[in-house]
């Protein structure tokens, strides 16, 4: 980088830095700059971990009318936990700026690698496998990226692909009464023909089309549909006119034909991609949501609460005081059980699996729950109290409040309370498997 550019980047970083962002992140070099955001490399001063800090100007955001996009991006990224998706660590804000603290992908954009030279078919397949794994994970949770392209695919230091930039993503709540999305978005060369038709589209199917374009680019080194004249390029996309170079294998040509099928009804699906013989070669299925949490020794892996901690939850002993009282069980609640934290989590996992809810174990004593096509997302944490009691705290992380209330109150919580009630009671014979407060 020329000296003048280095100086400009340093000055910009210092502007954002002010010694340390929120006293926690030491901001470094500028990584990239867009219309509404700048991205910096930073270091967590507590752990030494490298992170990327995406800085968004509230003024620019409000003037552009894109505030809802940022809120949706935060909502989406906070519930996506996949090894091939950039992780959102936390979101911070001041009066003028919003800060996304993101996983740092040291390898940079995949686009930079392709610009130097095309990939071998085997290497392209490896990246494509990781891309499809991430995209399939998103679709299963009701999230559609809608702007998949090499510029939004990053590489970590091990060379693994990371999907980023969910700013144009859609969720099922945005689907119209016709069952389709209607917002025109995406990057011209990667946009699906049905978006150009302006009659509505399936978010999953347009993501698959974009994945097909990406696969072609990885192996060919150029775009399948391209022309200096945008309207001419759109006509090529609409007609599906492309030719594979001579070095493409027959198996690759076959899957590309299905990926770039202009008819979304007959276009290959993610499930079908994963069964394809070309795709499956050397594929290792990604494991996530591992239930094998190892509980540490008492007091180390389980949060113990003393009297001060209990009182600090809220005024008096109303354990639901942390939540807005007007929200009731739609936002969360706390209740007591006479059980070990380990047993509570075990019962919760069993109940969730029975209802088809995805479970992810957190360190210490927490469980993340997701289901109902992304409309149900909750965090459950268990705190040990003296006298063989625990506080179970549940919070709605995302999704629909009505769905949360139905799934948690009518399906999951009763399993915990019933199991605990059938085996334990206090010395006076009064069951403790009931909410302490906030149960309407």
UniProtKB/TrEMBL annotation:
<dbReference type="InterPro" id="IPR017441">
    <property type="entry name" value="Protein_kinase_ATP_BS"/>
</dbReference>
<keyword id="KW-0418">Kinase</keyword>
<dbReference type="Pfam" id="PF03822">
    <property type="entry name" value="NAF"/>
</dbReference>
<dbReference type="InterPro" id="IPR008271">
    <property type="entry name" value="Ser/Thr_kinase_AS"/>
</dbReference>
<keyword id="KW-0723">Serine/threonine-protein kinase</keyword>
<dbReference type="InterPro" id="IPR011009">
    <property type="entry name" value="Kinase-like_dom_sf"/>
</dbReference>
<dbReference type="InterPro" id="IPR000719">
    <property type="entry name" value="Prot_kinase_dom"/>
</dbReference>
<dbReference type="Pfam" id="PF00069">
    <property type="entry name" value="Pkinase"/>
</dbReference>
<keyword id="KW-0812">Transmembrane</keyword>
<comment type="function">
    <text>CIPK serine-threonine protein kinases interact with CBL proteins. Binding of a CBL protein to the regulatory NAF domain of CIPK protein lead to the activation of the kinase in a calcium-dependent manner.</text>
</comment>
<keyword id="KW-0067">ATP-binding</keyword>
<dbReference type="InterPro" id="IPR004041">
    <property type="entry name" value="NAF_dom"/>
</dbReference>
<feature type="domain" description="Protein kinase">
    <location>
        <begin position="25"/>
        <end position="279"/>
    </location>
</feature>
<keyword id="KW-0472">Membrane</keyword>
<protein>
    <recommendedName>
        <fullName>non-specific serine/threonine protein kinase</fullName>
        <ecNumber>2.7.11.1</ecNumber>
    </recommendedName>
</protein>
<keyword id="KW-0547">Nucleotide-binding</keyword>
<keyword id="KW-0597">Phosphoprotein</keyword>
<keyword id="KW-1133">Transmembrane helix</keyword>
<keyword id="KW-0808">Transferase</keyword>
<dbReference type="GO" id="GO:0004674">
    <property type="term" value="F:protein serine/threonine kinase activity"/>
</dbReference>
<feature type="binding site">
    <location>
        <position position="54"/>
    </location>
    <ligand>
        <name>ATP</name>
    </ligand>
</feature>
<dbReference type="InterPro" id="IPR018451">
    <property type="entry name" value="NAF/FISL_domain"/>
</dbReference>
<dbReference type="GO" id="GO:0007165">
    <property type="term" value="P:signal transduction"/>
</dbReference>
<feature type="domain" description="NAF">
    <location>
        <begin position="300"/>
        <end position="324"/>
    </location>
</feature>
<feature type="transmembrane region" description="Helical">
    <location>
        <begin position="206"/>
        <end position="225"/>
    </location>
</feature>
<feature type="region of interest" description="Disordered">
    <location>
        <begin position="420"/>
        <end position="440"/>
    </location>
</feature>
<dbReference type="GO" id="GO:0106310">
    <property type="term" value="F:protein serine kinase activity"/>
</dbReference>
<keyword id="KW-0464">Manganese</keyword>
<comment type="similarity">
    <text>Belongs to the protein kinase superfamily. CAMK Ser/Thr protein kinase family. SNF1 subfamily.</text>
</comment>
<dbReference type="GO" id="GO:0005524">
    <property type="term" value="F:ATP binding"/>
</dbReference>
């Amino acid at each position: 980088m020329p000296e003048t550019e280095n100086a400009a980047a340093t000055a910009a970083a210092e502007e954002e830095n002010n010694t340390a962002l929120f006293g926690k992140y030491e901001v470094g070099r500028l990584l990239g700059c867009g219309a509404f955001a700048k991205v910096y490399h930073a270091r967590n001063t507590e752990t030494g971990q490298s992170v990327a800090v995406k800085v968004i100007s509230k003024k620019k955001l409000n003037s552009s009318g894109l505030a809802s996009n940022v809120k949706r991006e935060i909502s989406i990224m906070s519930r996506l936990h996949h090894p091939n998706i950039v992780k959102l660590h936390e979101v911070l804000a001041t009066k003028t700026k919003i800060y996304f603290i993101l996983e740092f992908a040291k390898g940079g954009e995949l686009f930079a690698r392709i610009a130097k030279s095309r990939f071998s078919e085997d290497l392209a397949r490896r990246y494509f496998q990781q891309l499809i794994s991430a995209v399939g994970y998103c679709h299963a949770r009701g999230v559609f990226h809608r702007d998949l392209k090499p510029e939004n695919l990053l590489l970590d230091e091990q060379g693994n692909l990371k999907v980023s930039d969910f700013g144009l993503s859609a969720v099922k709540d945005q689907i119209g009464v016709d069952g389709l999305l209607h917002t025109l978005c995406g990057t011209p060369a990667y946009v699906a023909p049905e978006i150009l038709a302006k009659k509505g589209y399936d978010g999953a199917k347009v993501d698959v089309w974009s994945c097909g374009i990406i696969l072609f680019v990885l192996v060919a080194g150029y775009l399948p549909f391209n022309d200096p004249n945008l309207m001419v390029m759109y006509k090529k996309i609409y007609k599906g006119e492309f030719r594979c170079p001579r070095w493409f294998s027959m198996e690759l040509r076959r899957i590309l034909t299905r990926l770039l099928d202009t008819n979304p009804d007959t276009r290959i699906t993610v499930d079908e991609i994963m069964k394809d013989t070309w795709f499956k070669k050397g594929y290792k299925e990604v494991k996530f949501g591992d239930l094998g949490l190892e509980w540490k020794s008492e007091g180390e892996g389980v949060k113990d609460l003393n009297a001060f901690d209990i009182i600090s939850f809220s005024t008096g002993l109303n354990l639901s005081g942390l939540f807005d009282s007007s929200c009731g069980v739609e936002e969360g609640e706390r209740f007591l059980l006479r059980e070990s934290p380990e047993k509570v989590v075990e019962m919760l996992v069993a109940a969730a699996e029975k209802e088809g809810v995805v479970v992810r174990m957190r360190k210490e004593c927490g469980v993340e729950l997701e289901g109902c096509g992304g409309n149900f997302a909750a965090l459950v944490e268990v705190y040990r109290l003296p006298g063989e009691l625990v506080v179970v705290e549940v919070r709605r992380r995302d999704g629909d409040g009505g769905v949360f209330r139905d799934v948690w109150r009518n399906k999951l919580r009763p399993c915990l309370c019933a199991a605990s009630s059938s085996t334990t009671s206090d010395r006076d014979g009064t069951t403790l498997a009931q909410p302490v407060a906030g149960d309407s």
